Q: What sequence folds into this?
């Protein structure tokens, strides 16, 4: 029987037990161990969110919940403003990604492909401003945004988050563009392309993996930010991090709500990355260099 | 004719700014608050108030507590930036700082004409008086710290519920053993409340030299020794916060701890009749000290709608509204009329609270206190508990912090 | 190389520069100005100019030096562990196997959680009485008795570092994974033809190809970790005593809890200058290596 027929039904590896074993021992097993380390605290939290309250302080701790309940999730979505806060966080994070990519891509292209006076200084400047502890930036920034009349708006938070994400994004993006062989744009230049065309037609398609990484970084950094969200907004715009902080009171931690909220909060980034990760593939092939 | 219309319209123009704010434009009162329960919303109270006071709109904003730091940071920033709310919930330990910022509006005149004043006990008024003798805070809720006891374990060992430090120590030692500890100490930030009961209750005084005088030194040595020599606190005590001390109590790992009525219903749900509360034990000379946990509303000096804001905060401290408010906040009503029918927590916890009032006090209202409770106390005490410094060093540091 | 007009790079940079000047440079300048004054938050009208007074006080402050020491341990240990684990994860995730897409998505879970949640979950897991770590450790015979991880000066730093490694390794995994995509496949093929094994091609192909991304991500992460204080604040508040007290935490506590904004600002400026020194020496070394 033709072997390729079997390939319709089985993964190729399944037909080669030795190769399969090597894949298992060399890749899947260590990765599973890393994922276990990464996921156990999260799973513990997710499990806690479906436990009845009285089990949370039972000693010794029950690994498997004695009963399951969705009461915390229901309370979270029905009796607190969490759903609206998720929306606010999403708008802010999406805005931060858009602004971050829009500003960092041209800047990184300029840094990577042009030699101009002051280039080094400017590049380092972006790092230096980022070294300043954010906790001390918030008061002056409050005045700036108040002067612009932007307090408690989406724009305030998107701009606030840009203070610490933008320099990161520019640097990270520059290193990805640095990784793209320069002979590609030179070839395009020979064909008479302008600088902007090179960026759009040559660099942009090849830097997609980098944009995915930077985009995820921007999204998560904004999504998880607390201090600016607390100080620069609050009434009209309230993000999930501020909402989660509400579950930690002066005398009480609402552990059920907090774990339920924590479980939900991680989802958007994970789902987003599940879709985006397909662009982290391939690498530069010979074809791309020649084309 | 022409001239008359001109005059008429001019009159209308000048009259407009006078009449408009009252007749058409509703006064918006921005009010900041914090409730521990995120499910509790003051919307019903706001609706009732707005119905009774047409022309006033309340914008209530729930500010995260963040160990006190987040709330204060937000409030200070807004004051410095000239963007403060009209009214806000505040605590006594911030009074001097807010006064130094000239951030508060005095309430004396408003209180003089307010019928609800007599319904709040004189004890509460005197606890809230500012150093300059004026009133800036309008009490809206309170708690007093008391001692939770596992009465079933006390009964098993034939112990009586502690009244004095000696009783407390005897019980704590007797109830420690295996994976049980006599007392769940809050050694993390906020735990100064526990320490004050033992050391200020044991004879230390918050006056110059009062923290390094012999009775103060003796009381603190005894307090630190409970951990380093007698081992009646769990080993995690130096970093435990309120969630740990309450969880340990609920889980049956500790026999006593100090907290307040805000956690009573939670405790009863976990432990039923096994748990009760008594006032914190008293020191060797019969004196005692327990922390008065206050909650008040204040008017911010920057506010543009002080009259309307006063109507709102005075409403919240009046009889039925105050009872409803405290059902949301989980604390105790400040009104005598409300207290008469108070049934939110089991009686034994209300009694322990009321019986603690004679020894209830606050740390001095000086600018040092906020930093003391948040940074100096936990850092120094933890060092003493893990034996990096001695108990006497600890008191010397406190003396220096407060009195230079 | 010339690409169009000489003004082009400036045009490309202008929006990003404008944003940074407005949102960062102005506030930083203002904070620096405040650090030259005696600024007590609750005395907004009295701000005497004290010149370098706050800086002199910082250098004489024993807690500053102690916090600096803790910051060095915190940054060096946390970033190297995050990097090591992240690099392994990236290399594994770059291979082909059936559940790769799912594994890639799941690996970012720790990174996708707000710090306050991470801090509380780890505090809870490490809890003396009710924590999973102590319970399983004792049951599996790894621990003789439960340990109060966060209340002991000898274990507290390790515990907060564990949490920040957990939080941070996915950042390296994702950025390095993206960097791996830029390495031309034929470089590996060429190495294979030369008879290079996995280890050799890692040293000769992967590492050089990944170098710019490694250098940048290490640098950025180092800055981020040295400035991050939220996990420590939630888990130990800098304690027990001052065992986990780092510089940004100190600046934060001084500026806000202590209301001494001038001193807090001075601490922040010193932290920035120290970081700058590290970064410059790093950049100089990297530049020299690139030339070599």
A:
């Amino acid at each position: 029987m033709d072997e390729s027929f079997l390939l319709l039904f089985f993964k190729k590896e399944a037909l080669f037990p030795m190769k399969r074993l090597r894949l298992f021992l060399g890749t899947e097993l260590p990765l599973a161990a890393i994922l276990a380390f990464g996921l156990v605290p999260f799973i513990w939290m997710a499990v806690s969110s479906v436990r009845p309250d009285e089990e949370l302080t039972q000693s010794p701790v029950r690994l498997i919940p004695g009963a399951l309940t969705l009461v915390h999730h229901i309370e979270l979505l029905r009796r607190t403003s969490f759903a609206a806060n998720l929306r606010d966080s999403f708008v802010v994070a999406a805005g931060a990604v858009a602004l971050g990519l829009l500003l960092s891509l041209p800047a990184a292209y300029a840094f990577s492909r042009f030699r101009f006076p002051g280039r080094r200084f400017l590049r380092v400047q972006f790092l230096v401003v980022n070294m300043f502890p954010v906790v001390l930036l918030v008061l002056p920034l409050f005045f700036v945004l108040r002067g612009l009349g932007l307090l408690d708006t989406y724009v305030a938070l998107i701009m606030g988050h840009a203070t610490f994400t933008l320099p990161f994004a520019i640097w990270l993006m520059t290193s990805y563009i640095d990784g793209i062989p320069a002979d590609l744009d030179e070839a395009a230049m020979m064909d008479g392309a302008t600088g902007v065309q090179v960026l759009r037609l040559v660099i942009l398609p090849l830097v997609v993996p980098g944009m995915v990484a930077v985009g995820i970084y921007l999204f998560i950094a904004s999504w998880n930010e607390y201090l600016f969200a607390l100080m620069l907004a609050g009434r009209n715009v309230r993000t999930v991090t501020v909402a989660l902080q509400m579950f930690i009171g002066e005398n009480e931690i609402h552990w059920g709500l907090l774990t339920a909220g924590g479980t939900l909060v991680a989802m958007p980034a994970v789902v987003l990355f599940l879709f985006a990760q397909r662009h982290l593939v391939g690498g530069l092939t010979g074809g791309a260099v020649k084309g | 004719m022409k001239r008359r219309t001109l005059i008429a319209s001019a009159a209308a123009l000048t009259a407009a700014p006078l009449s408009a704010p009252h007749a058409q434009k509703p006064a918006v009162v921005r009010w900041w608050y914090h409730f521990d329960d995120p499910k509790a919303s003051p919307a019903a109270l706001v609706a009732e108030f707005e119905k009774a006071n047409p022309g006033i709109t309340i914008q209530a904003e729930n500010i995260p507590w963040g160990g006190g730091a987040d709330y204060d940071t937000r409030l200070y920033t807004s004051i410095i930036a000239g963007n403060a709310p009209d009214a806000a919930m505040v605590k006594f330990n911030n009074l001097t700082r807010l006064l130094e910022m000239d951030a508060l509006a005095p309430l004396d005149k408003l209180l003089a004409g307010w019928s609800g004043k007599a319904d709040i006990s004189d004890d509460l008024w005197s606890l809230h008086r500012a150093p300059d003798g004026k009133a800036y805070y309008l009490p809206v809720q309170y708690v007093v710290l008391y001692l939770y006891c596992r009465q079933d374990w006390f009964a098993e060992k034939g112990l009586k519920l502690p009244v004095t430090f000696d009783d407390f120590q005897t019980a704590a030692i007797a109830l420690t053993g295996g994976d049980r500890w006599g007392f769940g100490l809050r050694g993390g930030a906020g735990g100064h409340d526990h320490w004050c009961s033992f050391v200020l209750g044991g004879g230390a005084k918050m006056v110059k030299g009062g923290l390094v005088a012999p009775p103060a030194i003796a009381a603190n040595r005894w307090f630190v020794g409970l951990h380093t020599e007698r081992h009646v606190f769990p080993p995690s005590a130096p970093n435990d916060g309120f969630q740990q001390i309450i969880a340990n109590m609920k889980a049956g790992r500790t026999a006593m701890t100090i907290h307040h009525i805000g956690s009573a219903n939670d405790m009863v749900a976990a432990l039923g009749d096994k748990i009760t509360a008594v006032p914190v034990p008293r020191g060797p000379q019969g004196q005692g000290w327990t922390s008065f946990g206050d909650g008040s509303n204040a008017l911010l000096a920057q506010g543009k709608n002080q009259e309307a804001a006063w109507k709102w905060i005075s409403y919240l401290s009046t009889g039925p509204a105050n009872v409803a408010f405290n059902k949301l906040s989980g604390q105790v009503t400040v009104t005598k009329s409300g207290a008469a029918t108070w049934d939110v927590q089991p009686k034994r916890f209300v009694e322990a609270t009321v019986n603690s009032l004679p020894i209830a006090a606050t740390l001095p209202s000086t600018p040092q206190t906020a930093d003391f409770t948040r940074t100096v106390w936990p850092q120094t005490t933890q060092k003493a508990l893990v034996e990096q410094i001695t108990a006497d060093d600890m008191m010397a540091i406190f003396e220096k912090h407060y009195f230079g | 190389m010339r690409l169009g007009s000489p003004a082009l790079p400036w045009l490309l940079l202008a929006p990003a520069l404008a944003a940074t000047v407005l949102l960062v440079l102005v506030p930083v300048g203002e904070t620096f100005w405040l650090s030259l004054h005696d600024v007590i938050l609750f005395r907004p009208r009295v701000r005497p100019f004290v010149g370098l007074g706050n800086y002199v006080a910082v250098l004489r402050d024993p807690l500053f030096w102690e916090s600096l020491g803790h910051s060095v341990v915190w940054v060096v240990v946390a970033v190297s562990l995050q990097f090591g684990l992240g690099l392994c994860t990236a290399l594994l995730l770059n291979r082909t196997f059936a559940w790769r897409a799912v594994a890639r998505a799941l690996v970012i879970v720790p990174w996708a959680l707000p710090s306050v949640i991470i801090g509380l979950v780890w505090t809870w897991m490490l809890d003396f009485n009710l924590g999973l770590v102590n319970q399983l450790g004792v049951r599996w015979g790894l621990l003789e008795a439960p340990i109060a991880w966060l209340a002991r000066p000898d274990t507290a730093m390790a515990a907060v570092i564990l949490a920040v490694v957990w939080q941070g390794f996915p950042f390296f995994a994702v950025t390095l994974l993206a960097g791996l995509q830029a390495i031309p496949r034929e470089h590996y093929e060429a190495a294979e033809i030369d008879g290079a094994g996995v280890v050799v091609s890692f040293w000769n192909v992967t590492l050089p190809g990944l170098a710019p991304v490694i250098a940048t991500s290490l640098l950025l992460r180092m800055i981020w970790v040295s400035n991050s204080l939220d996990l420590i604040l939630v888990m130990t508040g800098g304690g027990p005593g001052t065992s986990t007290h780092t510089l940004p935490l100190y600046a934060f506590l001084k500026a806000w809890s202590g209301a001494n904004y001038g001193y807090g600002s001075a601490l922040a400026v010193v932290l920035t200058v120290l970081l700058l020194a590290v970064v410059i020496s790093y950049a100089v070394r990297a530049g020299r290596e690139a030339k070599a």
Notes: Chain C touches chain A through 106 residues (CB under 8 Å). Residues 17 and 140 of chain C are 56 Å apart (CA to CA). The mean pLDDT of chain C is 90. The longest helix of chain C spans residues 62-93.
